[in-house]
Amino acid sequence: MERFWERIEKIALFLFLLAIPTQLGRHFWPEWSQVMGIRVDYLSPTLYLVDIFWVIWMGTKSRSLKYFKLVKLLKRKENWVFVGVMAVNIVLAGNRWVAVYRWARIVQWMITIKLITNYKLRITNYLRWIIPIWVITESLLGLAQILNGGSMGGIWYWIGERRFSFSSIGIAQMSLFGEGLLRAYGSFSHPNSLAGFLLIVWCYWQRNKNKNFNYWIVYWMAILGIIISGSRWVWGITTILIINYELKITNERNIKIILGKVMVTVGLVAIVLGVVSTNYRLGDFFAGWDSDSLNKRKTLFVAGIKMVKENPLLGIGEGNFVVKLPQFQKSNSYFWLQPVHNIFLLAWAEIGILGVIAIGYKLVKSLGYPKLIKNKKNWVILGLIVMTGMVDHYWLTLPQNSWLLAVVLGII
Length: 412
What we know:
Number of strands: 6
Structural class: mainly alpha
Shape: globular
Radius of gyration: 22 Å
Distance between the termini: 33 Å
Strand content: under 5%
Helix content: 55-70%
Number of helices: 17
Number of domains: 2
Order of helices and strands: HEEEEHHHHHEEHHHHHHHHHHH
């Protein structure tokens, strides 16, 4: 019987990891998940497929009392401080139900990190099989979406692919070569989210010491996915990393070798562009994205600063940025109901300095600070999360990226 539960645990953990890039879920729409009468999926309580596998995994762990030593947990003062900060933040929130839901997600996320640190070896072994599935599936699905001019539907619905076409309202587009192109979504809610996910996975994959044929397939497929996502910020980061990587492995700094590999990358881009049958014009390279994007992000940033000033210590309430946004944009006729595109400002605005310190302390204690800083490769991954988090919010708000962040923090 014990062996049976052990097998269930391993299967549930594997499926949990495998399902991380999916967003298949059941949304619930209580009145408090709306802002100005508009449904906001970020506020909607959602049961995802990955949650089901997580619950099964946790259920197998509950059989062992060592994971649920409540008496020991209650004796720790830092846990009471954490609960206190969380309770005050909820009480102060404009929409308390949203705050409760988002804090529940934070607790779930932190429990996951702690468990992953206890299963590093097993999870690392699983990821050798799972990462290729992630990368190849998402990159090929994204390319198919571009060729199709919209979502593929069918079986892809069951991994959470959203329904859209090139003409759908609010769909992400780009115009690289004089023609409008759809940006690759994969099974994600936005191409930027996909790009950030693939960037971190691609960087982690390079830790693999066995540089065989399969390694390079995943390596280049990840780059393909990043290219077709149309995320210019991630494009720039990836280019710098490739050049830096080639300089390191080429001891003599052989320019010919470096240029040759750069040409391979350029050739891959050319092949992709040839497949989508467009005519390249340099003048259109940076055109076609949302022309008002910078102004929208600036507006959100200003609103975030105002929220911080309102309550810098305890915040406005976890998950309440979008809820409170109309109050801080009264002079605008159009509301872009999005969290501010900066994870640090978003966290500060919603949970305050005390909340950030409370979560940060728990994370550092769980991860083991001395071990974390000794490995330079860890700093590269953390640096990439910081860099992408400076210009977007998906690490804190979108489930696929949040789960990946939990896994990465747990195993590094």
